[in-house]
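Inverse folding, one chain.
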């Protein structure tokens, strides 16, 4: 694993014309692509959107909307597809259920049911053809307009104690252009991610992105900085996406468009990265999804104490019953 680059000396520090000039806050909208088929979770996702799979007692998509709201983004556009009606229903009011809870005097559950419909103003647009993440982002153009905007992918849940998105918005306001979230991963895993070549800045957690590669072949990655599912994008990305040909997997890759943006000083550039070392829960595959549930359940005040006690007993019994490897 590579070490994070330290601050450069003053003669080599990466700066842009706007780096020290305060910029007015303009990021007000969040885009959440949610048109995927969720094939890794079949058969559970045959009739249920993968974004609605529960993480403890809330669907995964609600954590993402809560993160946007915590960053003061109350205008949220979801890019959906076929069989995603459950997403709209979840963030809508359910008057019959609410009336039933009112009659029972169950104020606690009533508040939790209403919570999802009061988080933000939700809008929806269908992607139609599943042409990749870049195409999904392009579908947001009529809603976003000419302002920078955030993109949050539902497979990455960021712990609310680690305000990554708010930090990314701060960086975008300072430097302009676009901002991606980066996390160092083991070199053996970098081929699973988009990867960034970076140069250090005077800020420990900010780097200048000079190149990006989508899922590089083993041994060809420019670094061990993986792109995780948070972006703050300049609206110039739309013009680039319209001209971006299909890339890896035959899809229009957002990484490919950002690679062109990274080469620009003006007209949508530059691209910076926020290096994140906080708590991230990956719900993108079955094993990590289960681990995310366990970690979040352990940290819940209402569930954690009893669940941790059970987990200790369970793991102790499992270890006791597991045969030792031969030769030990």
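Residues assigned per position:
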């Amino acid at each position: 694993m590579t070490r994070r680059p330290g601050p450069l000396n003053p003669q080599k520090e990466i700066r842009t014309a706007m780096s020290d000039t305060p910029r007015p806050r303009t990021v007000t909208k969040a885009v959440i692509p949610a048109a995927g088929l969720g094939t890794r979770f079949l058969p559970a996702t045959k009739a249920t959107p993968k974004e609605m799979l529960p993480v403890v007692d809330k669907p995964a998509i609600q954590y993402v909307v809560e993160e946007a709201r915590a960053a003061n983004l109350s205008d949220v556009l979801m890019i959906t597809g076929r069989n995603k009606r459950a997403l709209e229903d979840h963030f809508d009011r359910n008057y019959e259920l609410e009336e039933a809870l009112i009659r029972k005097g169950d104020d606690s559950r009533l508040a939790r049911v209403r919570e999802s419909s009061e988080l933000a103003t939700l809008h929806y647009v269908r992607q139609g053809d599943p042409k990749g993440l870049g195409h999904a982002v392009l579908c947001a153009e009529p809603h976003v307009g000419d302002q920078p905007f955030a993109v949050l992918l539902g497979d990455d849940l960021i712990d609310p104690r680690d305000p990554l998105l708010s930090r990314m918005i701060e960086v975008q306001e300072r430097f302009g252009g676009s901002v991606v979230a980066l996390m160092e991963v083991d070199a053996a895993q970098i081929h699973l991610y988009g990867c960034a070549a970076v140069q250090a800045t005077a800020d420990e957690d900010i780097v200048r992105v000079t190149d990006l590669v989508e899922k590089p072949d083993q041994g060809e990655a420019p670094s061990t900085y993986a792109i995780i599912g948070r972006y703050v994008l300049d609206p110039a990305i739309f013009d680039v996406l319209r001209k971006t040909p299909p890339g890896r997997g035959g899809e229009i890759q957002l990484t490919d468009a950002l690679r062109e943006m990274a080469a620009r000083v003006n007209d949508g550039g530059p691209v910076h990265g926020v290096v994140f070392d906080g708590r991230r829960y990956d719900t993108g595959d079955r094993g990590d999804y289960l681990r995310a549930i366990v970690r979040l359940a352990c940290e819940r005040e209402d569930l954690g104490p009893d669940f941790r006690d059970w987990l200790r007993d369970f793991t102790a019994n499992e270890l006791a019953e597991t045969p030792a490897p031969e030769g030990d």
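The domain at 29-280 is CATH 3.90.550.10 (Spore Coat Polysaccharide Biosynthesis Protein SpsA; Chain A). Residues 1-24 have pLDDT under 50 and may be disordered.
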